[in-house]
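Forum: Protein Structure Q&A
Topic: Joint prediction for protein chains with partners

I've read a bunch of threads here and the consensus seems to be that you should model interacting components together rather than docking separate models afterwards. I'd like to see that in practice. Below is the full input, 878 residues plus whatever partners are listed. Could one of the regulars post the assembled result?
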Amino acid sequence: MKFVDEFRDADKAHALAAKIAALCEPGRQYKLMEVCGGHTHTIYKHGLEDYLPESITLVHGPGCPVCVIPMGRVDDAMALASGPDVIMTSFGDMMRVPGSTGSFFDAKAAGTDIRMVYSPLDSLKIARNNPDKRVVFMAIGFETTAPSTAMTIMRAAAENLPNFSVFCNHVTIIPAIKAILDSPDLRLDGFIGPGHVSTVIGCRPYEFIARDYGKPVVTAGFEPLDILQSIYMLMLQLSEGRSEVENQYSRVVPWDGNVTALKVIGETMELRPYFEWRGLGFISHSALKVREKYARFDAELLFDVPGVRVADPKACQCGEVLKGVLKPWECKVFGTACTPETPIGTCMVSPEGACAAYYNFGRMNRRRVKEAVTIEVGRP
Amino acid sequence: MSPNQPGGPGAPGAPTRGAGPGEAQDISQPGAPRAGWVERALREHDEHHEQVPDREQQVLDRIARARRRRPRVREERITMSHGAGGKATATLIEAIFLDAFRNPLLEPLEDAASLTIGGTRIALTTDSYVVSPLFFPGGDIGELAINGTVNDLAVSGATPLYLSAGFILEEGFPVADLTRIAESMRAAAAAAGISVVTGDTKVVQRGKADGCYINTAGVGLLDRDVALGVANAQPGDAIVISGPIGDHGVTIMLARGELDIEADIQSDTAPLNGLVAGLLDAVPGVRAMRDATRGGVATILNEIAKSADVGVLVNEDDIPVRPAVRGAAELLGIDPMYVACEGRLVAVVAGDQADQALAALRTHPLGTQASIIGHVTDGPPGIVHLNTAFGGTRIVDLLVGDPLPRIC
Amino acid sequence: MCLGIPGEVIELLPDQPDLARVDVSGVRRVINIGLLADDLPVPGEWVLIHVGFALSKIDEAEAAAALQFLEGIGQAYADELEALAESRIE
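Posted by a regular:
Agreed with the consensus. Here's the joint model:
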């Protein structure tokens, strides 16, 4: 596969690993956060940590838009889905996220009409084909996915579809990163910057991280070599005392982002004054809602949404995992009461969640495994 | 106190939906809404009260213990996960069916049961076919129904002989389609060398049975002096697959037409008894065979690891996948290792006979792309490790449900 | 919300200016290219596909540059390994 296979080449990985190891100052520990859940997934799926020296720890960040949805909001979605004549449509990632009484999956088993879609446009198609039903699209995702929802809303408007609406849960990445930076219990050396969010917002929004907080940022692609190269670029910055924003994913990410995408988001959506993030609490101007101009496509206005806040289970430490304060296996209920089969928190149920990634791919004693995988490091 | 009081913080004019900071219910108080099912789950796992400063290995050990607990079905209703062939299916079978029917012949939970009747050893198996759509590139439900049961017998080391075929038809189902299915079954039976000797037909009301469901049961003669079973796997054994994975499952996903994806992929449904015979003739050291159906290769690897209490290590580079299947899987964000095949077998073979096994498979038209994908190890028991193409290592666990297309 | 796959644009749909057919390793799908309205892709160009939309064009030159860097590192590494193997300090 072009643009994929070349960036999964194991031989180049060894070279990069050697270079990264050579940049580590003896006795110093490095903590690099990958913000994006997709990066967390790649790291574990390809066993990328096997290429890193012990002194570099990867900390998993809150860039998993499913993981940050609070339970109450899931309950809202379930309430919407159970309305009369409603067809709820959702991405696969949302299907198993538990609310206080179960997930979409459970509701589907009990007879609620919930359908999985791959694209919001599929949802539109369902609306066209079912004029007597009210189709709701559960919109989730960061700025990566918001433009697609926006285009879909505009399409619905152009076609004057009377039976389509969006339950908007799009969140924005910068406030989350800022919350991490301002969090007292975390010390990070650098950021592996979000890849696909950056195709929309560009790299400029990250400049404050380098400028005001002195942390280097490298926007990274999603193949294992991309991430390894980004780590190399971060380590190079650190060793040279620089803190800048660099773009490793330049083949896809334009420095200025996608103007059209930003325009359609602006046309159809606006920032909510505040939004609750699981584990991070209320963050101002961190989420999108449908603009008044498109109110007829806003499920929150068309339907009665309970809007009840539900307490995160006390034992659930998703918040700390999302902030990178805890590693998945350090959560007290990880792997015992909380498993992919019986998830207590979203970090375990979303394929991008750090806990799910660790449980499904990384649940092994890496030191023992490392003995089996020989990494030849060149002369220091 | 309503959470929707107007005039919430920072929201001039616009209707305030949902509680905001500083107003509404204080969810830290005892009376606040909580998820009851979580409290129950926690009570079952009281280990979480330990405040031991854990090294990662202690956590892993604790998890391994938790995984070995007696399976229980927690859900009140059946969900699609229970039919996916992964964890939920396994739990359902063990907790409900094994529990109800428990007897030594059932316990091995192999693809077929080995029975001795009047001194003759036979294998008995059954499978139901509920595929949708009924007709797809490379085959149809009828062909699946014959091949699937033939294959379960074949991988048990039996010579498939006779099948039964039970039909559940939906009111309104076109007779022409039924004729087409029956004809497919005739052709498949002939190709496999078996006869359909008995059957049943039921009709249910419109809205049930999705057109047509078929159940086939099969009987075969265990005329070889082999005792196959995944519990026999030992460290050093090689794991061999007969061809590229994921063809069938991806074909079905695309054929459903919901994803608007076109590709030249077709189902790999095929009778494996010829391939198996060739393998068993050439290689005395075959420990076990499975046909890779729903749940995919990953499920079989886990069954081996769990049943024999051994480690399994496979190499991503050695697992054959057709480029188009890989492309579709990448597009959807699913892993071909969990996707169903219908004409592939996985064999566990004594390590020193791996090359012979490979050669034997490759001489057969259905095994031209056979590959040794890994080995049984004395690694952490019950766990499947994968050396990724990238050079790192990761785990391959059973999936909770169907591989749902991801967007992330 | 990250799954983006590179795909090659095969054809633009004549009656639907917003749509194009792409190919991913032999698998074909129609996607919406409306987000690239400022610089619509033409057949032969590659785009990043996410939930049925093209988010960005893939810049082949940048991709080549990235690969070249990696090759370079790889070559330097291979050279060093060779040097390591050839030198003996005994």
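Chain C has one helix and five strands.
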